[in-house]
Write a structure and sequence with these properties.
heterodimer; A: about 280 residues; alpha/beta; eight-stranded mixed beta sheet; 10 helices; about 15% strand; elongated; B: about 300 residues; binds guanosine-5'-triphosphate; binds magnesium ion
Chain lengths: ~280, ~300
């Protein structure tokens, strides 16, 4: 491991490379980061092996720090948060966590069960809504998700609810019809509440590899993705692909999921994330 | 794609009668990047590139073949071999042949395990559907007592397929599974498919639970359900699941996406356990045999 007292040599650089690569940072971003570290060493910014990890930690944190960490609140009424992502990434559970997070800040919340396709998806969200004492809008089996979204927006606006969170079905970005469906949901929301969805959070599975970048890029083409929730960081996965996502797509991670209960949720802190990367 | 990158590497190098070490080193850099981008684990990439180098250096350049194509073929063949295939053979057509280790007497027990959200519940339904279509009488078991509406999810899937689901209002998964196997024996179901809760390999309690389920039901198949877009972490979880259970095979899910799927190679390489079949969609029909040659091409992009 990167222990104290090491001198800067090829073995050390190789070790740094290993840490980054096995953290899903990806080969290109790793090469680029190591190159900038080597340049910093050459320029005397890093004098010994002991300086290397702190330098890397702060370099990575600087790249990941979001320019806007808070939720994009709607000044004029209900804030609509749309949740999207590929199958099984943790959307529904993240919504439960977000509800608890918002309820703790005294916001009134309604959730919309717009996954009308998957078995027991509506039931799953319904159970969470009940546990967390938030409003729930669902549709009939196999209803049009956009219709449910519209009904939910209608309900939230008329009741003056602070936040409406819209759960959607998992979808692969390779499924054109499902990506079009997502676009339709955003349009319908915007029709009923001006500016909606004000925040569109893509839930990225923390165990995902380089495909996370393609996913994010594709989802952004169909919805105005404003940030990410990275789930499942309580395992051994490091979520390193977010470096490329921030670097290439300029999208910040806003929240992280660290478990299966509604409490396992926190705003994203670049320093904490970066420290976890280097153990 | 890797083929294109190798082509540009070798077009920079002159004519050769045999592949020199420095020629191969340059090609290996491209291969390493391609494999890492495809999410193959770093340790597997290192071993692979060493093996490829050993095979490629000194190889006589075949008259009618370009050197880049020659190296690409070495890489491809090596991947096919590691994925459990025979290089040079073409995958058999999809005749629905999915190999299962059948029980010699009594119901065949299949345990589905894996990380959260990988596709276990859906895969249980898919496998049950397939087995029913082949004349078997499967019993699905809802042994996830933790996720909200998990039992309901399997019940809805079972109902849509007209396949019985054993479920209980409350109780602990190991006992539920044990009772389900006894019930299957009594009712004449010849296959029992255990749907378990998603769990982290670092969760001591839940890993003990799945070991307990296996101890009580003595499964003939223990399948790791792996999301094909998993990155470097795949080897960490696969290793622990294999050491704890052990596994008899792997199911790769969500292959209908565009992820390169290098995690499959990593897991096979580290556990030695074969991919039994793959998931290619959300519908219960979306279950297919695994084709090592197609997977190799996919990983190489
Ligand atoms: N360990 C861990 N598990 C999580 C986390 N977030 C979600 N999960 C689990 O991941 C699994 C999938 O979560 P869901 O919320 O159903 O995922 P989803 O994206 O809504 O799934 P689909 O709607 O089917 O696409 C569940 O077992 C969750 O408990 C997390 O941060 N850590
Ligand atoms: N596109 C696609 N989606 C799949 C595939 N297999 C499963 N899914 C979807 O992935 C999501 C998660 O599937 P589940 O079966 O709930 O996963 P799980 O492993 O049982 O989840 P937990 O029990 O929470 O750990 C659902 O939206 C499924 O429809 C597949 O092969 N392709
Ligand atoms: Mg969901
Ligand atoms: Mg499940």
């Amino acid at each position: 491991a990167l222990v104290k007292g090491r001198k800067i040599d090829d073995a050390l650089w190789e070790e740094v490379e290993e840490i980054l690569l096995t953290s899903d940072v990806g080969p290109d971003a790793t090469t680029e980061l190591v190159a900038s570290a080597r340049l910093a060493a050459k320029n005397g910014e890093i004098l010994s092996g002991d300086d290397l990890v702190p330098w890397l930690r702060s370099a990575v944190a600087a790249r990941l720090r979001p320019d806007e960490a808070d939720i994009r609140w709607n000044a004029g009424g209900t804030t609509v948060i749309l949740i999207a992502g590929v199958n099984g990434s943790g959307k529904t559970t993240s919504i439960a966590k977000l509800c608890k997070f918002l309820r703790a800040r005294n916001k009134t919340v309604i959730v919309a069960a717009c996954d009308t396709f998957r078995a027991a998806a509506v039931d799953q969200l319904g159970i969470w809504a009940k546990r967390l004492d938030v409003g729930f809008v669902g549709g009939s089996n196999n209803a049009d998700p956009a219709a449910v979204a519209f009904d939910a927006a209608e309900s939230a606006a008329s009741k003056g609810v602070d936040v409406l969170i819209v759960d959607t079905a998992g979808r692969l970005h390779t499924q054109k019809n499902l990506m079009d469906e997502l676009s339709k949901i955003t349009r319908v929301l915007g029709k009923r509440i001006p500016g909606a969805p004000h925040e569109t959070l893509l839930v990225l599975d923390g165990t995902a590899g380089q495909n996370g970048l393609q996913q994010t890029r594709a989802f952004r083409e169909h919805a105005n993705v404003t940030g990410l929730i990275v789930s499942k960081l309580d395992g051994t996965a490091k979520g390193g692909v977010v470096l490329s996502i921030k670097d290439q797509l300029k999208l910040p991670v806003k929240f992280v999921g660290t478990g299966e209960s509604a409490d396992d949720f926190a705003p994203f802190y670049a320093d904490a994330f970066s420290s976890a990367l280097f153990g | 794609s890797l083929a294109q990158r190798l082509q540009s590497v070798f077009s920079r190098l002159g004519r050769r009668t045999a592949l020199t070490e420095s020629d191969v080193d340059e090609a290996l850099r491209e291969i390493r990047t391609a494999l890492l981008t495809a999410d193959v684990h770093l340790s597997v990439v290192k071993k692979l590139t060493a093996d490829i180098k050993a095979r490629a250096v000194g190889e006589k350049v075949i008259e009618s073949v370009r050197p880049d194509q020659q190296v690409a073929k070495i890489v491809y063949d090596e991947l096919v071999r590691l994925l459990g295939g025979q290089p040079g053979t073409i995958s058999p057509p999809n005749d629905g042949g999915i190999p299962i280790r059948w029980s010699a007497s009594g119901p065949t027990v299949i345990l589905m395990a894996g990380l959260q959200g990988s596709g276990k519940t859906t895969t249980c339904a898919k496998l049950a559907r397939y087995l029913k279509s082949k004349g078997h009488r499967p019993l699905l078991v809802a042994a996830d007592m933790q996720r909200p509406a998990a039992v309901e999810q399997l019940k809805v899937l079972g109902a849509s397929l007209e396949i019985p689901v054993h479920w209980e209002e409350s109780g602990r998964p190991p006992k539920i599974c044990e009772r389900a196997v006894a019930k299957a024996t009594a009712d004449g179901n010849d296959v029992v498919i255990l749907d378990t809760a998603g769990r982290l390999h670092v969760d001591r309690e839940l890993m003990d639970e799945v070991r307990d389920i296996a101890a009580r039901t003595k499964p003939h198949e223990v399948l790791l359900v792996l999301d094909s877009m998993t990155g470097q972490d795949a080897v960490n979880s696969a290793k622990v699941f294999d050491e704890s259970l052990p596994l008899t095979g792997v199911v790769l899910t969500k292959l209908d996406g565009d992820t390169r799927g290098g995690a499959a190679l990593s897991v096979l390489s580290v556990t030695g356990k074969p991919v039994r079949f793959v998931g290619t969609g959300e519908k219960t029909e979306a279950l297919e045999p695994f084709h090592p040659d197609r997977m190799a091409s996919r990983i190489l992009g």
